[in-house]
Structures are given as structure tokens and as C-alpha cells.
Amino acid sequence: MTPPDQIRVLLPLPLAEPFTYRTGEAGPLVPGDIVEVPIGNRVSLGVVWDGNPEPLPLAKVKAVLRRCEAPPISPALRKLVDWVAGYTLNPTGAVLKMCLPEPRALVEPPPMRQILRSGKTIEMRASAQRDRVLQIVAERPGLSPPELAEAAAVSPAVVRKLVELGALQADQVPAFRPPPPDWRRDGRALNATQAEAAAGLRAAVAARDFSVTLLEGVTGAGKTEVYYEAVAEALRAGRQVLVLLPEIALTQQSLDRFEQRFGAPAWAWHSEMAEGRRAATLRAIGHGEAKVVIGARSALFLPYADLGLIIVDEEHDASYKQEEGVIYNARDMAVVRAKLESIAVILASATPSLESLHNVARRRYAHAVLPERHGAATLPRIDIVDLRKERLPAQRFISASLQAAIRETMENGEQAMLFLNRRGYAPLTLCGACGHRLQCPNCAAWLVEHKRHGRLQCHHCGHQQRLPDTCPSCGAEDRFKACGPGVERLAEEAAMLFPEARLAVMASDTANSPQQIGEMLTRMENREIDILVGTQIVAKGHHFPLLTLVGVIDADLGLAGGDPRAAERTHQLLTQVSGRAGRADHPGRVLLQSFLPEHPVIAALSRHDNAGFIAAEMAERQRAGMPPFGRLAAIILSGADQAQVQQVARDLARVAPHGPGLTVLGPAPAPLHYLRGRFRERLLLKAVREIDVPAVLREWLSKIRLPSAVKRAVDVDPYSFL
Ligand code: ADP
Ligand code: ZN
Known about the structure:
- With 722 residues, this protein is of the alpha/beta class.
- The chain has five domains: 6-82 and 93-99, PriA, 3(prime) DNA-binding domain (GIY-YIG endonuclease); 112-174; 192-370, Rossmann fold (3-Layer(aba) Sandwich), CATH 3.40.50; 381-422 and 485-618, P-loop containing nucleotide triphosphate hydrolases (Rossmann fold); 630-716, CATH 3.30.70.600.
- It has a seven-stranded parallel sheet with strand order 10-11-9-12-15-8-16, with helices on both faces. A six-stranded parallel sheet has the order 17-27-26-18-25-24, sandwiched between helices.
């Protein structure tokens, strides 16, 4: 029996189990309470956890320092933490850390922002500067002292002096406090199919019970308009809504659109936010003040006061997979959270994942379908440029057909987009004299030339260097040749072919903040750009009324290699990109440049045969026992000493689980067998659906003690096979 004043406290640190503490002066405490505890010689925040503590000798048990004035962590979120830790084989504390990304934010008072208003009239020496300041305060109340000084073009000292004299009064107000969104506002008048889908979603939200609906609709069908109805329903019930987006790039556009629809801003959540803003947002989420949060995958684990609905937009997107630290898929964990919270979740996509479609087929998910673009808009025509027949000149990447189509588009005063999923200038640089390829010193990867920065970069570890003057292998001077295209090089070619066109390049390294991306999109919308060259960052979600031509430079790019999801992913990506072309009165056209026109993915795209592709791919997955019909888990071992890593991998393989419905493949060097200075070996576990994969993994991994120099990562339901 543990003494009644002993409790378990989980710390947001990579520790598997909660620690035992005495309630001490802080008691009584209940699970979910946020507390401060001593750990080593530090003080940490922790959460009182469920379950009975390990009985410990009294002398060893430290006391909780204090209970924090913060909303407690709900039972559903505590269960989610335990569940995710168990499923992904991560320490519970590491998962808790994702719930409390700014631990202090919840327990400290909100920062205040000083604003100024004019005080009583007082006698003072008038000056042009002072007059200007007072006039601006009268015209534009609510400025902070630095803003006011800037607006009046005076030094901060002038403003300070006015405050001192009492001519200005300083008020403290919370930094960001938008009005709540207004669910009473009408959205767009929905067409019949949209209305039917919206009614289903509204009912799912109103049911206050767990449900999953796959909202499937071609790009431009109005999925967003439809799920806004579900948002309105949740807001009507006074509850919070989380909208997950796969890319930060989409946030600004999504925030703008939300504000137009509901008359007040939503709260953003993503990794690029300033610390203060994150803290304020976390607090608003915890206190239920943030009614709608639009965010990246990490927003899923935040401590919402009363979550009523989760929407996962572009649910098929691989960016929902977090590949580092706690490896999880936010789409899947959103479903788990919805289940634990007994709420509705909506998965929206034009190209749903096979997993979600399979769950629809098994009747576990409801299905709302919007088969057509809204209004008069039709889907673009998709043509293949067969690069085997239409040969490209050396070091050129835009075919004559595509060139002609771009010319026609320019002549019509419309816009074109060239899509190539490769950042930088050239993916490979080699020595023209000896053929030596410039490689990253830390990874088994080529260095990518980025002309914009005048540097070579490794896209895996971030290593950067200048282009050397001489070849490190043969010493030849100035003989380096760029091989293959990246978006920068493609833009160079487009500029040469269309010198009069206004061109812009958009990739995650040219536009990486929501603001920058927002600006680029606005320029595109305002027709300040004729040709937009971009990576997958341009593929998703944006609507450009005058974009009528999409040229896919290398449709085969994603199909190479042994990635079991290659076909599905390429199909999704190219469907997304194609969906950018054409709107109501400007029908669109897509040209896919390919060396593999007969490949099922390319052929299906050109016929708009989505269903046919899905059916064929499903059959293939079923035959191979691959997801969604079977389960996969990967174990990646890495270390600086290759022989040691290989030895551990072999040892692990020797004690691999076996039995009906279980296969272990490997060990084999990972495709990226050297990364950030570490050699990598992979093992892949394949199992039938009925098998509890995390349990099997736990049992298996417990048999081997890893040397400390070898790191292990477990990837349940892998998306990336690098
Ligand atoms: P999706 O999310 O399926 O790509 P959106 O919801 O973004 O589609 O809609 C595509 C475009 O069509 C948007 O500009 C949207 O405002 C417009 N639209 C969709 N449905 C309607 C409607 N019922 N009435 C007016 N405009 C609509
Ligand atoms: Zn590298």
C-alpha cells in the first residue's frame, strides 16, 4: 500500500514513467493538476498522473512544491498521452512534452502590452513633436509606446515624457485578444450536394459523440465551404475547433479565409511563431478563449479546454507524419484523440489516403462526397508529353509542346505554373574532367547547388559550402557541371524562353514564413506574376483564378526507388498540382512531361481515372499484404561506427519475432545509409492487421540491450522509407 499522500507526477521529459512525490503543502491534488516539483537540483513543471505510485521509502520521496494556477490536463488528453506513448514506443514524458510546448505559459500571468490614450488636459510646454504625438493618439488609439513614437516620428523619450507629465495614460491590456468568431454569419449559399454533405457534418458535430467522416471532393468542389458549416455548429455549442493543415505555407490563406467567413480571426499554431505569441496562444487554448485554432500537426496535442471538432485538411498528406523525436502521424492521432474526447473528426481531401478509403469501405468512417467542382468550373484537361518521342535538348527541361502551351497562355493574358519538386539549381554537381560527384561529408547524399545563395547544400543535414575552385578528386579547375534541374534552373530556362514574362520561384527555401508565402500568393492573385515556378509548396490548396496552365516538368520524379507508397503519393501530388489549373470561366490545361506514359499512375491521371487507379493500387496492396491491409513498422539503428551498427542490427534480427502473419525483413542498409555522420541499418516488420504491432515490438526490443553509441528509432506505420 502506498501512503495516501503519495502521488505520481509525469514530467515533460523523455522519461518512461511518472515519478512518485508527496503532496506535501500542495495537497490535496488530483490527476491532471499541473504542479511544480523538484527534480535533481532543478524545479520542473509536471502533471499529476493517474494510477498508483510505486511505494518508495519515505525518505526518498520529495514533496511537490506547489500546485499551479492553471487549467488541469483533461482525462482525455492524459489518456491520449499514454496511448500515443504506447503505440509509438516512446517515453510517456516525451509525449507529454508535446502537450506543454511552452510549459511556463500555462502557469504564468499573460504578458501585457502597454497602450496609450490621452489623459486629462494638463498645462505643459507645447511643441510640434508633442502635438503630433497627441494628435496621433486621438486619431489612432491603441498604439503601444514604440509604435506611437514611430508613427509620430519622434524619439521614444518624447512619448515617455508625455506619460510622465500625465498627458498620456498608459494602460495594460492583453497582447492579442480577438473577438470570438461569429457562427451566426451566413456562409456561401451551398449547392445541393454541398448542402447534403454539410448537413451530415453538422449532425456529426451535434451528436457529441465519436465519429469520423471522410470528406472527399475534387479540388474546387467546396470542401472548405462545407466543413465551415461543421465549424459553425461546434461554435454554436460553445466548443473549440482545431483545423489541422499539412503545411505552414497554407496557414495564412486559411486564416484569411476563416476571418472572411466568421468575421474574426482564428488562432494560428505552428513552429515559426514567436515564443511570446506561442505562449499567449497556448494560454488561450487552455482557457478556452481560443475558439478556433488553425495549425500544423503539433497543434493536435495542445491542452484544449473543450474541444468539439477536429478537421484534418488534406488528410492524405505525408507532412502529417512527424519523422523525428516522437514519430507519429497526426491524421491518425487526430482520430485517436477524437475517439478519446468523444467528438467528431473530419478528414478532407481530393485524393484520400488508401487507409481512409479502406476505413470507408469497412464502414468505420462515414463518407461525404463532392464529385464536381462548384459552379461552372470543370476539371482541367490533362495531356502527356512523351519525352521518349519529344526529345529535350541537352540541359533543357521545357519541351516544345510545353513551350507552345506557355506561349498561348501568355498571349491569352493568363497565368502558368511550372511544377518541379526539387529545390535549388541542380540536384547534382560533378567534375567534367573526372566525373567526381560533390557529396555531403555527413550524409550519403549529393550536394545541391543553390545559386540564389551561391552555395551547395545538403538537403538532409543542412550542411553548406561554397562551390570549390578545384575538383577535390582530380584537381581540375573550374570544370564543375550542374546536372539535372531544380526550380532555380527551371526558372532560368523559362526566363530565357519568355524574357517578357514576370517570373517567380516558390520553394520552401525562397518563401518559408507564412507572411512571405502570403505575399507571393497575393502577387499571383493580383496578376503580378505570369509564370510561377515551384515545388510542392505551390501544389496545395491555393486558388488562382487566372492560372490556366500547369506544366509538370518531371512527372516520373516520385516513382523511382522502392518506396511502397511511391505510386499513391505521386498520384496524390500530381492530382493536387493539376487541380490548380482552371476555374469557372477559364478552363485549365495540364501537361505532364514523362518518360513513362504507360505507368499506371501517369495513365490514370491523363484519363482522370481516379477510381481506376485506386482500385488497382488497393488490389496490389492487398496482394502484397501492405497497408491498409497489413501493418508495417520500421526499426532504424544508427551510429558512428558502421561495424557496430551492423552487429547490433544482426543481433536484433536473430531474436526477431516469428509466427503466423509476421515477417521481418532486413537488416539492410537504409536507402539513406549514412546520415548526419551516422550509419543506418533498417529492419522492417510486416504483420497482418490482427496483430498488435506495438506489443510485438516492445517484446522484441526488450530482448536486446543497445550499446549507448547506437541509437534506435521506431517508426510504426512508416511513410518514409529512407
Ligand atoms: P476545396 O476545398 O474543395 O478545394 P473550396 O471550398 O476552396 O474547395 O472552394 C473552391 C472555390 O469555390 C472557392 O473559391 C470557394 O469560395 C468557391 N465555392 C465553393 N462552393 C461555393 C458555393 N456554394 N458558392 C460560391 N462559391 C463557392
Ligand atoms: Zn548532409
